[in-house]
C-alpha cells in the first residue's frame, strides 16, 4: 500500500501513456478536444503555379490539381503507406469523405510510395477516397515538411486550414468548420 501511495502519480501517468499508444483513436479525440480546428486569420492563397500538379489517379482518373480550383473546397492531404500517423488518420479521412464528398474535392497524394503499395493499402482497408501520385514537381509553398500534412483550401485557393500531423478529420468541430466555410 505504501508503494502505491508513493508512486500513484507515476503509475497513473504510465497508464495514461499506455492507453494513448494502445488506442490511437483516444489520442486523436484528445487532440481534437484540446486543439480544435481554427481558421487562419491571415490566410495565404496558393498561386496558379502551386496548383499546377499533374496527378496520376490510383483509384480515380488522372487529373491536374488546377482543374479542381474554383469548384468547391479542396482537402489536399500528403501521406504515405510507410507513415504510421498517416495510416492512423486514414479512417477519419474516409469517414469525412463519405459524408462531405458533395462539398469537398478530396486529393490525397501518396508521397515516397510505390504505386502497388498504395493500391494494396487501399484494397486491404476498403478505402475509396481519391488517391493520387504526383507526376510533376510540387512547389515549396505546398510541399510538406512532415507527414501527414493536410490543407483545406477554399474554391479560390486560399488556405483555410493547415494541419501538420495526424488529426481526427471526422470530428464534430471539423464538420462544423466545413459547413461554415463551404458555399
Record keyword descriptors for this entry.
183 residues; alpha/beta; seven-stranded mixed sheet; 40% helix
Short characterization:
With 183 residues, this protein is an alpha/beta fold. Helix content is 40%, strand content 19%.
Structural commentary:
The protein is elongated, with a radius of gyration of 18 Å. The protein has a 7-stranded mixed sheet, with helices on one face. It has 183 residues and is of the alpha/beta class. α1 crosses α2. It has helices at residues 2-22, 24-34, 48-51, 84-100, 115-125, 172-181, and strands at residues 54-57, 63-64, 73-79, 104-110, 131-134, 149-153, 159-164.
Q: Approximately how much helix is present in the residues? A: 40-55%
Strand content: 15-25%
What Rg, in angstroms, do the CA atoms define? Answer: 18 Å
Q: Label the overall shape.
A: elongated
Number of helices: 6
Question: What's the main sheet like?
Answer: 7 strands, mixed
Unreliable stretches? none
By helix and strand content, what is the structural category? alpha/beta
- Provide the residue-averaged pLDDT: 88
Number of E strands: 7
SSE run: HHHEEEHEHEEEH
Topology:
Layout: H1 2-22, H2 24-34, H3 48-51, E1 54-57, E2 63-64, E3 73-79, H4 84-100, E4 104-110, H5 115-125, E5 131-134, E6 149-153, E7 159-164, H6 172-181
Parallel strand pairs: 3-4, 4-5
Antiparallel strand pairs: 1-2, 1-5, 3-6, 6-7
